[in-house]
Amino acid sequence: MTTPLFDLIRHEIAHDGPITVARFMELALGHPEHGYYMTRDPFGLEGDFITSPEITQMFGEMIGLWSVVVWQSMGRPDPVNVVELGPGRGTLMGDALRAAEADPDFMDAQRLWLVETSPVLRDAQKKNLMQTMRMPAWRDSFAETGPGPLLVIGNEFFDALPIRQYEKTAEGWRERLVGMNAAGDGLAFVLAPGAADETLIPETLRAEAEVGAVFEDQSASRAVMTDIAKRVVEHGGAALFFDYGHFEHGLGDTLQAVKDHEYADVLAEPGQADLTAHGDFQQLAEAARAAGGPGAASPRRVPGPSGPAPARRHADDARRPRRGPSDRRGLQPADGSRSDGRAVQGDGGDPAGVRRAAVGWRRGLITPP
């Protein structure tokens, strides 16, 4: 099936040659007219996936209480910027603000920023946050948010940022690109003709990598983390992220597509399916340290993608995928209801070999493990 975005990508490839995986993700998710997030609300039963804030309001409420406690430990700065990256429908922030009302001083001090590029989702956020009487300022990037002390929140944000992929061949490392298939009527993964810069692959992985191994470079995620870390170092603050991924560098192709709560072909319908990849939390931690921060803390270490296979490789687990490389069946109530009455999709089980990790980072409060 061709899509309007497929035609644009085909034209770009015909003009400039195969594009990077990162470029493909940028277009598929964020093209101003045909990008996945720019044209729809993808959440819930009527969408393509379900995230934790849509399952229970307790998720957002706990984050709201965390924000208050950390703000108090910072010396109660006034004002303090509360920034959410990729805020979805605004459900998480609405729940967080409701819980944070336990401290009126915090509510008076907070200045709310939502980093969102989708006009459709901005409208949904306005509707959900209207009842809180705390309208945020919307920005397209973190760099555009206001200066000063800050608390940054992100739920399943990094897994949707563009990645670049490098594959080990008998001749060395080559970048994996997106080009046209042999028939010229569809997209296909191809390898760049020239050798890739091997210094992009962590030294610990180069020796152990076998032919066919894939490393995913997450420069876009590192750039965002660098900006956040610099702000925290300069002004004080904290950052809390919930995402899927591995704590240490690993090898493996984790790029996946989800549509209608089912796994889909990554290249088949650009702009019509969600795209995600495992987060590499070691890359994020190294970016934070390079910016002057202490690094990252995680509640547990999880294996890299060269360990247990990603969920998308388990055909019997592909019935009800969620947005990340794992679903959340183990987090849902048995009757499929959200505790505040909103229905969610539910069925039992949890695919083996996929872990969920939360990364928290704060200057002076959280030290590396």
What does this structure look like?
This protein has 369 residues and is α/β, with parallel strands linked by helices. Helix content is 28%, strand content 21%. It has ten helices and 15 strands. The strands form three sheets. Strands 2, 3, 4, 5, 10, 14 and 15 form a seven-stranded mixed beta sheet that branches. Strands 1, 6, 7, 8 and 9 form a five-stranded antiparallel beta sheet that branches. A hairpin with a 6-residue loop joins strand 7 and strand 8. The longest helix is centred in the N-terminal third of the chain and has 17 residues. The N and C termini lie far apart (48 Å). The C terminus is likely disordered.
Query: What is the helix fraction of residues, given as a range?
Result: 25-40%
Strand content: 15-25%
Q: What is the count of helical runs?
A: 10
Structural class: alpha/beta
From the N-terminal CA to the C-terminal CA, the straight-line distance is 48 Å
Which overall shape is indicated by the principal axes computed on the Cα atoms?
A: globular
Please describe the biggest sheet, giving its number of strands, its sense, and whether it closes into a barrel: 7 strands, mixed
Radius of gyration from CA coordinates: 20 Å
Mean pLDDT: 82
Q: Compute the number of strand runs.
A: 15
